[in-house]
Design goal:
With 294 residues, the chain is mainly beta. It folds into 2 domains: 161 residues, no CATH class; 76 residues, no CATH class. The chain is 7% helix and 33% strand. The protein is built from 3 helices and 8 strands. Strands 1, 2, 3, 4, 5, 6, 7 and 8 form an 8-stranded antiparallel beta sheet that branches. The longest helix has 12 residues. The structure holds calcium ion (4 copies).
């Protein structure tokens, strides 16, 4: 009875066409075991299950698309040529190097192989960007105050005056003692959004006498207040160029193949929804960029 029940479970998950044989296929892939390697030109995604007899399912995408940098779902229709799925069983455990090393290991050997004859791979990416600039900014907002192409929530110089936002808020605001960031010229526009912080009609970006794209280190005379915060000093050095910007980026993915048909000779396995899995932190790092000046 127990055996019958077990077979019934397997049969309800997968079924075989053509010859009517029951194909005993575990497909016990843990969703969290999705891994990837490669990059533009050839991306490799794979999920390994060594728990019983070793098996893997893998997807190769030969595409020049730059993946993982934009949120959304991209669709690839399997074609057996450039977008290929393989399901394999092996005579021994396999490791990441089986898919990712330049010289593929000679063992273990593949004992059974199925090729994805058809199906649609759906790669869903969720990207998080954060400038960690001391201001809470809405990641849903398209606000780009300085129109430099970096939205405020990942622009660490929101007004494009070449003074980083974190240096324009004031210690009191950063420590939580002040409710509002500083507004040096009291014009109702906080310094971090004000392109002329001292209201002397010279743009902060231009109050950069030494031209190093950093107005905070330009002082006239013995003053310890930089020129861009001193209304009495109005020297202009026209600089229409942005300093380098940096922000944190993390990218999480989920990979699913819909209507997958796996074929080995006359044997066929179909699966309406094959979850290859998910992976956090496919990208996890810092992006540095010099925005174009508009
Ligand atoms: Ca911006
Ligand atoms: Ca600024
Ligand atoms: Ca102001
Ligand atoms: Ca000024």
């Amino acid at each position: 009875m127990r055996k019958l029940f077990f077979i019934f479970i397997l049969f309800s998950l997968f079924y075989s066409c053509n010859d009517g044989e029951i194909i005993v296929t575990d497909f016990n892939f843990e969703a969290s075991n999705l891994n990837n390697c490669g990059g533009p030109g050839a991306y490799i995604f794979y999920n390994i299950n060594n728990s019983l007899s070793a098996e893997s399912i893998s997807l190769i995408l030969e595409t020049s698309d730059v993946l993982f940098f934009e949120s959304g779902t991209i669709e690839y229709v399997l074609n057996g040529d450039t977008y290929v799925v393989n399901y394999r069983k092996y005579d021994g455990d396999i490791t990441d190097s089986y898919f990712c090393s330049n010289i593929p290991p000679t063992s273990p050997s593949v004992s059974i192989e199925y090729l994805g004859a058809s199906g649609i791979a759906l790669l869903t990416t969720i990207v998080t960007r954060d400038d960690e600039d001391g201001i809470e900014e809405d990641p849903e907002s398209n606000l780009d105050t300085d129109n430099d192409g970096l939205l405020n929530y990942f622009d660490n110089d929101d007004d494009g005056d070449n003074v980083p936002t974190v240096n324009e808020l004031g210690a009191g605001f950063l420590s939580g003692n002040n409710e509002f960031p500083i507004d040096t010229d009291n014009d109702g526009i906080f310094d971090y959004l004000d392109i002329d912080d001292d209201e002397d009609t010279i743009l902060t970006r231009y109050e950069d006498a030494n031209g190093d794209l950093d107005p905070t280190n330009d002082f006239t005379g013995t003053s310890d207040v930089p020129d861009y915060l001193t209304p009495a000093i109005a020297n202009s050095n026209v600089i229409d160029q942005y300093r380098i910007h940096s922000y944190q980026i993390t990218s999480d993915i989920e990979l699913v193949i819909n209507n997958l048909v796996l074929v080995n000779g006359s044997e066929e396995i179909t699966k309406e929804t094959m979850i290859l899995g998910n992976k956090s932190g496919v990208i996890d790092g810092t992006i540095s960029v010099i925005p174009d000046f508009n």
